[in-house]
Amino acid sequence: MKSTALFYYPCKEISSLRSLLCSAERQFSMNPLFSVFGPDGREAIPYSAFLDSVESLGTVLCSRGYQKVTAMILGENSYAWACSFFAVVCGLGKVVPADTGLDAGELEAIARNCGVDLLIYGEKFGETAEQLCRSLEIDGINLSDFPALCAEGQQNLADGDLSFIGLEPAPGDSAVILAPSSKSKPFVLTHRDICRDLQGAASMILCDKDDRHMALLPWSSQYPLCMTLLFPMVRGGCIVIGRGMRYITRDLQECEISILSSTTALTGEIYRKICSNIKNKGTRKEREVSAIVRLTGRSTAIKRRIFCEIRDSLGGKLRFILNCGTPDKISAEGLFSYGIPVLQCFGLSRGLPLMTACREDAVRAGSCGLPLPGTVIDIYDRRADGTGEIRFKRKEGTEDSGTRAEEMRSGWLYTGRLGSVDRDGYLYVLGRKENAIVTQTGVRIIPEEIESKLTGNPYVAAAALVAFRNENRGDTDLVAVLAPDREAMRAEYGPRYSKGQVEAELAKAVAAFNATSSAQKQIFCFICEPCVRDADLRRPAVRAEITAQVQSRYLRRLAGIN
Q1: Residue 208, burial from CB neighbour count under 10 angstroms (0-12, 13-18, 19+)
Q2: Is the distance from CB of 286 to CB of 293 less than 8 angstroms?
Q3: What is the mean pLDDT of the segment spanning 23-38?
Q4: What does each C-alpha distance from 428 to 31, 265, 346, 389, 390 come to in angstroms?
Q5: From CA 73, how far away is CA 75, in angstroms rounded?
Q6: Across 55-59, 268-272, 277-281, 324-328, which has the greatest mean pLDDT?
Q7: How confident is the model at residue 452 (pLDDT cuts 50, 70, 90)?
Q8: Nearest of 252, 261, 190, 219 to residue 122 by alpha carbon
Q9: Looking at the predicted structure, is the pLDDT value of residue 216 above 70?
């Protein structure tokens, strides 16, 4: 497979998460590792202080008999969360990062499935934690006691207790168990699995000790855990723990973030806000911006200088947005046109490996980049249009611990995602195989591809494409279920905009799509449904529910009844 990447950035081999931390501390001892928000504002914590905290906490846990444990960590991103994570994976056992949005019953079921025997929790989740500890008959450690625990550990170290210091996990030891829900099989990641991904990402994505990474997404998911907690340590970067979505703009500005790890939905929201701000300045400004975008071509450096006002609104230091998920080509291309590249990665949320990444100097809008070193990407069951199921394997033939037997065939991991690869080896992910719509004439339509184009319209906040069989014409009707963007509607029509105005804007969006689409992809009609959210549409069950909900309205439209 041909690749336009001329070289890989050098990266030292990492054998375990403990070796990652110790190596980073030796190289970047006094550099800031964390920027945390406290009572007196932002505080910088260097690599050396973090290692001291980890060793102190690990020592006291070890002295209390917590060895070979499976610890669930329930809490929001924090310095204490990070210390607890490393204290466990650096020799005491493995971690189950818990989704803070789940209820106590779901957390209990996950804990039982994963064999959890220690709960580490934030003060905010005290009531839930007490309930879990009683039900599971396990010990709990409150992160509000973190300073006292570290002080106790420091005293133990001073007294000569080196039991934790001597621990060293093997590459094949389990490090993290990912369990998104009690109904899904937990995925066990070894130190080797995680470190291999970190090395691969570092060989493709250039960052250094001067970069400041925003840790906004919860560490309970694989991508944020790897890319915002672990990846910055490879190059000595600083991890800025954000205060939540509500404060994202302020945190970007105050902390001078240079790398933002994001989701497709968040990246799209950032782009829409930029467009809305430009639109609010009038038609003349919109035309001026469009002309500058055309004249500056593909030069990121020129765009950054000219659109410095836009970059200043995001802190002024933002080098790129690091995104994982199904790409949104419109948002990616739009942000690039203002000098903000979106580096798209591809990996699966089920605890499986990072497969591709973008090079900052070779971005292609809508692409997830090139395969990581030592990996191969292929398109299986390729159709005439070049699309098929994405499959992946490592050249040395070793499998990842998180893979299921049914997903592996002859050494290939079948991802369940549809996509294509261009002549230079760049991967384009279109959507989930299970969401694909096959019309009665045999045409395969990928809903996510059409949905991303519809949400490129400023008045469409979310879109779901569903299909119904039309017996009269012997084919399939495509129906777009659209949620209007309330903010855009208020900006255009005022706070008391009408239902008719919403319907008119959505109709224009569908008409614009149909005007540039093939006959097989024409949308028959649209249905306005304000409750549809982009984040929900990743789950096939949600799509099936939406289809059932709007079927009666589709039949009324088919019969010509409004």
Answers
A1: exposed
A2: no
A3: 94
A4: 38, 18, 9, 11, 9
A5: 6
A6: 55-59
A7: confident
A8: 219
A9: yes
**Angle CA 400–328–485, to nearest 5:** 130
Q: Which of 519, 554, 521, 526 lies closest to 430, judged by CA?
A: 521
* Sheet with 475-484, edge to edge strand ranges: 460-470, 475-484, 523-528
Name the phi and psi angles at 139, rounded to 5: -80, 155
28: its two tokens: 């970047």
pTM reported for the whole predicted model: 0.86
> Per residue in 41-89, pLDDT tens?
889 999 999 999 999 999 999 999 999 999 999 999 999 999 999 999 9
* Structure confidence by residue, pLDDT tens digits, 493-532: 999 999 999 999 999 999 999 999 988 899 999 999 887 7
CB atoms within 10 A of CB 194: 26
What contacts 293, CB < 8 A, 6 or more positions away? 303, 337, 338
Find the length of the chain: 562
User: What is the helix (H) or strand (E) element at residue 269, kind and residue range?
Assistant: helix 264-280
CA-based nearest residue to 478, from 397, 380, 393, 558:
558
